[in-house]
Amino acid sequence: MIGFFEKFSDIIATFSDSTDGNLSFKWSGDNVLANRQTFFNQLELSLPNLVTVQQVHGNKIIKVISKDRGRGSTEKNWLNGYDALITNEKNIILGIETADCLPVFFYDKQNQVIAIAHAGWQGVVKEIIPKLAELMKKDYNTKSDSLHIAIGPHIGKCCFEIKQDILDMFPSKFLQKINNRLYYDLTALVVDQLKTVGVHHKNLEISSVCTSCNHKYYSYRRDKSANQGGQLGIITLI
Ligand SMILES: [Zn+2]
C-alpha cells in the first residue's frame, strides 16, 4: 500500500496494491473480505466504517452521512449510481475500487472535508473531478489554498491507447501518436481540468506509476478477462 497527504496528521489516505490481495468486490475471486480485514487492521481502521459506491462511469457524487457506514464494506450492498463520495464527518471511511482508472483523493484541511472519486476515461470526460472540486467550494466553503488533491497509481499515457471512435470526446492537446497508434494522457487532462477550477499546482500530489506497466498492480487493460482483482483507495479523517 502507499499513502498520500502524509505531511498531515489528521488524515489517512491510502491505496492498496496486489500484495494486499484483491480488495474489490467488483471482481470475482475469493478472499476479498479477509483481505479487506487485514488491510484495515494494518491501518488500525474499522472496516464497518467503510462506504463504497457502485461506480458506473458517471459523474454523480454522494454526500455520505453516518447512517451510510458499512455500505459496500463487507458485501456488494454499495450505494448505487455514484462514482464519488464526500463527507465532513469523522468515523466514516470513503472508498473506491480501481484497476487502471484514476483514484482521486480530495482533502480540505481548513474545513476538514474529504472526498474520493473513481475516474476512468468516461468519468474524466464527464468532468467528475473538477465537478467534485466545485462542489467542495460551493457546499463546504472550500478555498483553493486549503484544497489538496492526490492522484494514485492509474493507467499512464504509455499504455492508454484509444481508438478513433472515441477520439472526438477528448481535447486533442494531450493526444500522442506513436507507430500509428493513438495514446492519451488522462493525467495531463485531469491536471488541466483542476487548474481551470482554481486548484493550485503546489497542492497536487500525483503518482507517476502506471498500473498497466507495473505488475505490482492489478490492471484490467493489461490482463483483460484474466485480471484477478482491483485496488482499494480509502480516505478518512482522524
Ligand atoms: Zn504503462
TrEMBL record:
<dbReference type="InterPro" id="IPR003730">
    <property type="entry name" value="Cu_polyphenol_OxRdtase"/>
</dbReference>
<keyword id="KW-0862">Zinc</keyword>
<dbReference type="InterPro" id="IPR038371">
    <property type="entry name" value="Cu_polyphenol_OxRdtase_sf"/>
</dbReference>
<dbReference type="GO" id="GO:0017061">
    <property type="term" value="F:S-methyl-5-thioadenosine phosphorylase activity"/>
</dbReference>
<dbReference type="Pfam" id="PF02578">
    <property type="entry name" value="Cu-oxidase_4"/>
</dbReference>
<protein>
    <recommendedName>
        <fullName>Purine nucleoside phosphorylase</fullName>
    </recommendedName>
</protein>
<dbReference type="GO" id="GO:0016787">
    <property type="term" value="F:hydrolase activity"/>
</dbReference>
<comment type="similarity">
    <text>Belongs to the purine nucleoside phosphorylase YfiH/LACC1 family.</text>
</comment>
<dbReference type="GO" id="GO:0005507">
    <property type="term" value="F:copper ion binding"/>
</dbReference>
<keyword id="KW-0378">Hydrolase</keyword>
<keyword id="KW-0808">Transferase</keyword>
<dbReference type="InterPro" id="IPR011324">
    <property type="entry name" value="Cytotoxic_necrot_fac-like_cat"/>
</dbReference>
<keyword id="KW-0479">Metal-binding</keyword>
